[in-house]
Structure formats: structure tokens, C-alpha cells
Amino acid sequence: MTNEKEGEYCTICGGVKPEAIKIKTVLVDGKATGINQLDFIVAGVRDLNLKDDAAIRAELLKRAGEFNYIPTKKKEAYGNALMQEYKETQR
User: Fold this and answer.
1) What are the residues whose beta carbons fall under 8 Å from the beta carbon of 35, sequence distance 6 or more?
2) Contact, 58 vs 86, CB < 8 A?
3) Pair 78, 70: CB distance under 8 Å
4) Average pLDDT across the chain, whole number
5) What sign does the CA torsion over 24, 25, 27, 29 have?
6) CA–CA distance from 14 to each of 8, 34, 72, 86 (Å)?
7) Region 11-29 average pLDDT
8) How far apart are CA 43 and CA 58, in angstroms?
9) Which of 11, 32, 71, 81 has a 20 to 30 Å separation from 88 between CA atoms?
């Protein structure tokens, strides 16, 4: 019998190893805010080839919410920051 766990976990907290966390900083309401998996999120939304900004924004927020806590009161500000990042990476 072995004591091996499936996958790799942090030996301190038992959570996902820090290498699996890929945080990029963006400005949300003028404050530097870390968004985990931002490049992955933007690439995934870009692959959908959505043309409508409202649809792009909704999908960015949905996907960002899967990896990050987005306070309800700050949802619009996060949406603005995510859209700015999306548009900047199109260039």
C-alpha cells in the first residue's frame, strides 16, 4: 500500500502547487489586480471568434470567474479591465 496522492499538491497548504497559478496584473478601477489564468482566458474567448463586444465581455467575465473571485460590486470594473486586456492583445 502506498501513500501517493493523485497529482501534485503544495506540501504546506495541500492546495494546488503555485506553479499551476499564472497570475497577470491588470488595472481594475485604477488598482493593480491579479487575474489568474488571464492569458488562457483571453485566448479561449478569442478562439470563439465573437464579434459583439457585449458577448465578448460576458464570456471574459464568465471564464475569469471560474479562476478568480469577482465581487458583484466590481463586476463592471472587472469587465472593463478584461475588455481592455482583450483588445490590447489583439494588436
Assistant:
1) 23, 24, 25, 26, 41, 64, 67, 68, 81, 82
2) no
3) yes
4) 86
5) positive
6) 9, 22, 29, 33
7) 75
8) 15
9) 71
Of 20, 19, 28, 21, nearest in space to 85 by CA: 28
**Contact predicate 89/42, CB 8 Å:** yes
Query: Please, where are the H alpha helices in the chain?
Result: 38-46, 53-67, 75-88
What pLDDT is recorded for position 89? 87
pTM for the whole thing? 0.78
Name the grid cell of 50: 465573437
Q: How far apart are CA 64 and CA 79, in angstroms?
A: 10
Find the radius of gyration of the CA atoms of the chain: 16
Please give the angle made by the CA atoms of 29, 56 and 27, to the nearest 5 degrees: 20
Q: What whole-number percentage of the chain has pLDDT above 90?
A: 71
Give the pLDDT band of residue 45 (cuts 50, 70, 90): very high
